[in-house]
Amino acid sequence: MGEKKAYRGLASVDLMEAFNIDEGGLRELDFTKNRAFKVPSLFMYPNYFFDDVLTVSTDPRSVCLSCQGGIQLGEVIAFYFPGKNKKIGFGRVMGLPGDEIEIKNKDVFINGKMEILEPLQNGNSKLNLINFEYFKSNIKGIIYVIVKDPAKIEKESYRLQSIPAGHIYVLADNRDHSLDSRTFGAISITKIIGVEIGMSNQTRVEKTLSRLKPRQ
Q1: Which CATH number applies to 15-209?
Q2: Which of 69, 81, 157, 186 has its CA 20 to 30 A from that of 171?
Q3: What's the CA gap between 35 and 84, in Å, rounded?
């Protein structure tokens, strides 16, 4: 029998599918190098709700852009917002140093390849009177859900930019109602607190799995 694999990313749609993915070099849980935060906003909805607990690894080997087992595309990070304040934000890594990012009409292009989104049906899509559209995405084996607000028109495209050395580009999962690198640019590695290592609310994950399905 092969060695059991542990999934280090967020599996909010196809949980069992995610567990079957062999990523290699999976991050081990080390409670001496972890921090936990309560999520204060809906920027990462539907993968995180208000007061969900996001646990991150602060191990230097995890918060790294050049070492094996370091930050990867698709993972969620906790970071300090740019500036002198200590406000903490959360976002999904969509670009690493040297990657080229462009956003056209809400479509994200990473190194010229568009993020492939699978439409999902949701039995209860309204949240705060917003009728969200749900989509499944899969970047480098990390599966997650994003939402778009069809009533919100993208006023501008974000021109092609290359991510500088020592920086990453993050987007929130709630694409039309959030603050991320579209607003404040790429984030310096020095601002990163940690990389997500797990989901704390298993009951909500199960509810999410039961209400989302491919849209015909």
Answers
A1: 2.10.109.10
A2: 69
A3: 21
